[in-house]
TrEMBL record:
This is Enoyl-CoA hydratase/carnithine racemase. The lineage of its organism: Bacteria, Bacillati, Actinomycetota, Actinomycetes, Pseudonocardiales. Keywords: Lipid metabolism, Lyase. InterPro entries: ClpP/crotonase-like_dom_sf (IPR029045), Enoyl-CoA_hydra/iso (IPR001753). One of its GO terms (molecular function) is lyase activity. Pfam families: ECH_1 (PF00378). The keyword Transcription does not apply. GO terms for biological process: fatty acid beta-oxidation. Belongs to the enoyl-CoA hydratase/isomerase family.
Amino acid sequence: MTDSGTEVLVEIADGIASVVLNRPRARNGLNLSMCRALRSAFEQLDSADDVRVVLLRANGPVFCAGADLKERVGRDASWVRRRRQASFAAYEAVERCSKPVVALVQGPVVGSGGEIAMSCDFVVASSAATFRFPEPHWGTVGATQRLQRVIGRARAKELLFTNRVMSAEEAHRVGLVARLVEPDRLDAAGAEVAAAIAAAPPLAIALTKQAVDLGAETDLDRGIRIEMAAIERNLADGGWRTGVAHFSGSAETAED
């Protein structure tokens, strides 16, 4: 396993990258060095030809306990502002990665941990996971944009205003979590999801991710145009023929 600084570990095997938040003694609290390491890791993975899918997970029983507020003691407003910009840059690097990124979430997910998870394409969570967005109660502002886009404005306000803990079951019900599994199945489920994604033609997956993300920012008519442009690029590559041949072979086998 290689590292992007000790706070974030990266391992690549068989086209699957594993990115690990690695501050378990600090409950994986997000500090400045972790922000920088996370950004660096995903910028490198974005251009890595041998990577087909990324799994983002954490060491220890806590996925991420939010921002590490201890590092702000004695700092001035200018430092805190730069620190927040570093976290935004880290989230954006995760979000903009051209490879599918799947969060594997266990235990508490708090504040910045939720931002990291929501920056991924989707979340697979242990049924023991919990979610909390305490930013206003910590005297700061955060999670106001991604959260409302994932679960809706009213639900986002309720969580932010009250600081209550949301269960994994509720998170799954409202769309924050895409798949819910038993705690002892999280790693296996992650491996299964990664293998399924890695088995698909990489250009088709990359174009699908791009088309979904760009389409979410516009209306249906423009979204269809985005999809048509993606289809044309895929056809120009020629790799689609392999998919058709594979499907035809599978269909023939099923009929025999």
